[in-house]
Amino acid sequence: MLIKNPRLKDYISRNTDGVTRSRANAIVVRKIDFSADHESLVAKVKGTKLYEVHFYGLQSGMISSSCTCPYDWGNVCKHEVAVANEIEGMMAALDTSAKDLSSKKVKTKSIAKKHDGIFTFSFKEVQEFDKAVFLKYTDPHIFSQGNATFVSNVFSEASKLILEIRGDYWASGIEFKTEIELLENELTLVSNCRCSKHRLCKHQVSALLFVHHHLPHLLLSEEDIENKKNQLLVEYGFSLEDKKHETYFKFENSQNGLEIIPLKEGILKKFEFSKMDYFSNHLQESEVLLRNQLPYKLKEKRNLKPKGIAFAFEFESLKNERRPSVMVHPITGNLNNEATLLSSKIEEIEVDTFSFKKEKFSTEEKALIEASFCLSESYLNSINSNTFLSQNYIHHKLLNLIPGLQNKIIYRSTGNSYKILKQDLVPIILDMNSADLEFKIIEEEDFYSTETYIIVNGKKQKLRNAKIGDNFLFVQKEETYYLNKSIYFSNVLSFFREKPTIRTVKSDFENFYKKIIAPLEETHKITFASKKKSNIKIKVTSVKKQVFLSEIDDYVVLKPVVEYQNNPIPIFSKKELIIQENNQETMVSRDAIIESEFETELREIHPAFKTQQTDFFFLEQEEFVKDAWFLNAFEILKEKGIEVFGFKNLNLKYNQHKPSISMSVSSDIDWFDVHIEVAFGEQIVSLKDLKKNILNKDKYIRLKDNTIGILPEEWIEKYTHLFRSGEIKKDHIGVSKYQFSVVDTLYEALENEHNLFEEHLRIKEKLKNFKEIKDVTTPIGVKATLRPYQKEGLKWLNFLDDYNLGGCLADDMGLGKTLQIITFFKHLKTKNKETIPHLIVVPTSLIFNWTEEVLKFCPSLKITTLTGVNRQKDTTSFKDFDIVLSTYGIVINDISYLKKYQFNYIVLDESQAIKNPNSKRFKAVRLLKAKNRLVLTGTPIENNTFDLYAQMTFVNPGLLGGMTHFKNEYATAIDKNKDKNVAKELKELIDPFLLRRTKEKVATELPPKTEQFLYCTMGSEQRKLYEAYKNKYKDYLLGKMEDDGLGKSKMYVLEGLTKLRQICDSPLLLNDAEEYTDQSVKIDELVRHIKNKASHHKILIFSQFVKMLGLIKSRLDELNITYEYLDGKTKNRQEKVANFQNNKEIRVFLISLKAGGTGLNLTAADYVYIVDPWWNPAVEAQAIDRCYRIGQKKNVTAYKMICKDTIEEKIVLHQQHKKQLSDDLIQTEDSYVKSLSKESIAALFS
User: What is the Cα–Cα distance from 1234 to 1228, expressed in whole angstroms?
Assistant: First the structure.
């Protein structure tokens, strides 16, 4: 179909070619929807897929269109042409209806085409522009181009804005200019481009978008403008109603909007004091930071013949804040004839090469050169980027350097080259005589005017007229540079450079005076043109000496002030003191003698103050609080009647009081209640907080008022043991009377209450030196000869009995703990004629051993066993016996009636069985009643320090405090943090109640014992399987830890370690469904040893794995080697033991490590094989000691079988590294895995 409508035809013809129009005939238009005003439409068109076509301007005659297809070869695609073909027949009707629609529209100002290329819009239209509105006046692709066109510059001329436009951000030049005229709420747009003028071009679109987004304030109504003017005037203390504003201000419309322009210089906005606080702050800050580092003055040596060095100063402008304000370059070169300048071969002395050239310079020159390096550009760029701090640093370095540069050649460098050139060097003079500022305040009709004057080298002139250079740190007069006396002065000068004259509206002058003038009066002369002060001087009698504290960065400032009749004056200030007297200002005479004495008093309280030449005194925060210096200083000042203010405002937040301590003790049956109160002034410290700080050795304690109190270090040292051992109970510390080591502390602290502790100190001393305890004769009826150490044990047990103290007999396995207890019980029966029985609780495996030992060594002691299903279930018959023997399991089951009976002694054998305080065993035995309690164990610490808690708590309740207390204060500190001091403390605490002797020290008659490793090398099949499992678990675990974290992966670590250990014994130990090789290097090696030794020796073989014992059994059966066997299921243990001990035909005893590691006496053996190493060497030692005990006559050799290059070597290494506190302190496999890190897990499987 051919388009006949001239407007639509023209649009399509201009924007397509014949090919596109031809292809449109094949396009299917699915749907056309017109807008309500028929100005636009949306059509759905079927192409490769469904596209959306838009047409705009159907009524206005300015047609545009767009399509969502990817076509980008021209302005209009075939889909748009297809839609145009479809609507061709509708255009006449649309033209007619458009006229009707136009007459019904609400009248608004629309685009007016005054002449070609000029468009006018109302302000409101521009404010409401969006893309849809733009597309009424331009094509979509033009709108997109306008969005991408860049407005590079904006100029204002009267009511016009001129926008310079280039094609994009990176374009090199300006393409065109667009003028925007703003008159009578209308915006007129004119562009000098050569684009088509019947619609908006991309430059006009760009200009409109720029105004719409960035200059909306230009589109204000008259009412809005009036309101804006009034707002601007109010900032200066005026309004539109006050016609005086026309004298002082005018308004201009610029690209920044409506602006107010003061007609007189220096008019300050009302309450505009954003920089005024800056002065009052820097009055202190700058001075502190200037003087807090005492300048090191380089020694001046005057050389009659200066060497060929000079210093080139590079002064940066105030406007360039990116570079340091002053840089110094040390240079060298040939001197001129007069030796006043460098004449040739000038080069900079570089930091990197200076060390190679040092010998060329004198000591003084080297010092100056090195000092100047601190002011090199590279060094200054590396320091703190904070402008104030860097300026302060530079100023301080200049103070150090410049005095040493007298009689040296000094230049100003003017070049921009990285290289110092002679033509860029200008000779200058550096002068340490700083410039000064004065201020004159003049009253005008509506303002107070402040005029600034600068004094340079004794000459004064208005700052506005002075040519003083523009460097921050120097004032320049011709080629002389005067270093400013301080950063404070530089800041003041910098401020008043911008406003040399300031006019303040009268209503706001008081605020201006307070913020600006008053701080300046301290250091600068202020002249009031209308001075109303009296020339009469009076002398006041009310004088107070005060110190005001403040904090600047890392420094504490002490500012000395004398208060005259409620008017404070800093003693270093030159300010006149003026007071109100009879409605007029009167000058007060300051007391020079008092102020001088005050200064002397302050200089005496710290060595640093003696040499400080500042307007105040200062210390680094660390020095201020070091050894609580400020507390001692405050006391000295208080004694001299000097008041201290401002301490609470310091960020240090320290409490200004020394702590006081009061302590009292009350005594209970088993406890001392220690009442302690520590106070800092009115702030009382809670015992909980005090304990935390003392135990952490933290002398800084947070108080309830949020201040920090300082605890004396001697307190921390003195009371650490008390707080660690004692338990906090509300308002006091509970200390068990068994904690003898703590009694020492209390005894020293409480001189008036020594009588409370004397008995306990006496007991402690005897316990400490128990060898001097009175002798105890071995009672008649004991059929054994006690060894010397056993007699000492009997004396110790008798001593504990005398003072009703519990104890732990922790002799090595095999040293006769059972005999010592039997002898002690016989002694008690003889001594006290006791009829109350003792209860002995043992593991089931030891029932027979105890029974046999009692019958053997003291048959006169009547013993009954509480065991078996048919056991007696009441206590009626107990009175007929001296000893009731039972097991831990029976005690748990029968506790309901046993807890009602009062025994004489309760003895727990192998007491590590109750090491878990949460176990039923511990809870049950705690319920038992007795006059006293003992525990027996060869390994009081089997797994970790916490093992001690339950055992020592059983014998002496309260000795170690509560469970959580012990875990936090002792177990964690020793096991996890490896705190040797805490370990020593714990040792001192338990020492009086724990007696331990080792075979090496007391059983010297025992033959030697040899322990050695038996290394085995796996066969190829066993090794191949081991490596496969090792790599499998390594890869799996590392991935598992990556995905699930370390905590959730440790159970798999334990699984992997067990599998590897089983393979080391024999692959047949694996419980997997697969069949593995039966190759076992350990069984092979073990059989070889048995064949060689069995004829002349008896052998014990221990393994953790019962299945491994079964494999060994099978091999022994094959070889017809007779043996005994014992594991956890064995019932007739004693028969097995007796058969091995007495039957010469039985040469081998296979024993489960767990079931047979304790309670067996196997002295017939002299060779021991530990088939698989265990994480806890104490368990291995127990196994070996089954044969290495009293009664052994032969040399004992123990072999620990280790597979080379396997996990077993790591286990051995772990055993060696983990011994702590005692020879028995080691972790179990479970607890070891819990302590592993990701890295150590990876190492285990490496």
Answer: 10
When mean pLDDT is compared across 494-498, 757-761, 1004-1008, the lowest value belongs to 757-761
| Contact assessment for residue 808 and residue 817, using Cβ atoms and an 8 Å cutoff | no
The 3-state DSSP class for residue 462 equals: strand
Q: If you search the block for the tokens 């940066």, which residue do you land on?
A: 316
Report yes or no on 1067 lying in a domain: yes
Does residue 491 lie in a domain region? no
Based on the fold, state whether residues 118 and 34 are members of the same structural domain: no
Q: State the Cα–Cα distance between residues 40 and 56, nearest whole angstrom.
A: 4
410 Cβ contact partners less than 8 Å away, ≥ 6 residues apart:
310, 311, 313, 427, 428, 429, 430
Please provide the average confidence, as pLDDT, over all residues in the chain: 80
d(CA 302, CA 365): 11
DSSP state of 1216: H
Distance CA 418, CA 327 (A): 13
Q: Angle 190-192-196 (CA atoms, 0-180°, nearest 5)? A: 85
Q: Return the axis-axis angle of helices 487-498 and 387-401, rounded to nearest 10°.
A: 120
Q: Which of 104, 138, 158 is the last residue of a domain?
A: 104
Six token digits for residue 651: 């960020």
**DSSP helix/strand/coil, 990:** helix
Q: How many domains does the chain have?
A: 7
3-state secondary structure 1002-1024: HCCCCCCEEEEEEEECCCHHHHH
The answer to whether the predicted template modeling score (pTM) of the entire model surpasses 0.85 is: no
Q: Are 1102 and 1156 in contact (CB under 8 A)?
A: yes
Relative to beta strand 309-315, strand 409-413 is parallel
Q: Convert the pLDDT of each residue in 290-336 to its tens digit.
A: 343 333 333 333 343 445 899 999 998 877 777 788 999 999 999 88
Q: Which two tokens stand for residue 1164?
A: 């017939």
Q: For 825-846, what is each residue's pLDDT tens digit? A: 999 998 887 689 999 999 987 8
CA gap 168, 152 in Å, rounded: 9
The answer to whether residue 558 sits within a structural domain is: no
Query: DSSP string of 889-903?
Result: HHHHHHHHHHTTSEE
Q: At 418, is the secondary structure helix, strand, or coil? A: coil
Strand residue runs (E) in 582-670: 584-589, 617-620, 643-645, 659-667
Angle at 648 between CA 646 and CA 650, to 5 degrees: 80
215 neighbors 257 (Cβ within 8 angstroms): yes
User: pLDDT category, 807, cuts 50, 70, 90?
Assistant: very high
- Over 80: is that where the pLDDT of 947 sits? yes
Identify which of 672, 741, 766 has the alpha carbon closest to the alpha carbon of residue 984: 741
Instruction: For residue 1185, report the phi and psi dihedrals to the nearest 5 degrees.
Output: -75, 0
Per-residue pLDDT reduced to its tens digit, 808-826: 999 887 788 999 999 999 9
The residues near 233 (Cβ < 8 Å, ≥ 6 apart) are 239, 240, 242, 245, 249, 260
Taking only the tens place, the pLDDT of each residue in 565-595 is 888 888 887 677 777 666 666 777 788 889 9
Give the domain extent around 680: 659-762
DSSP β-bridge partners for residue 588: 538, 577
Beta-strand pair 929-936/807-809: parallel
CB-based contacts of 1139, cutoff 8 Å, min separation 6: 1124, 1146
Tokens encoding 818: 């059972």
pLDDT bin (cut points 50, 70, 90) of residue 91 is: low
Query: Is 336:266 a contact under the CB 8 Å cutoff?
Result: no
CA distance 421 to 329: 12
Task: Clarify whether residues 194 and 234 are in a common domain.
Answer: no
In a domain, 463, yes or no: no
Task: Find the mean pLDDT for residues 1059-1064.
Answer: 91
Phi, psi of 1200 (to 5 degrees): -110, 115
- C-alpha angle 959-962-965 in degrees, rounded to nearest 5: 105
Binned at pLDDT 50, 70 and 90, residue 1218 comes out as low
Q: Which of 160, 184, 219 is the last residue of a domain?
A: 219
| pLDDT score of 196 | 65
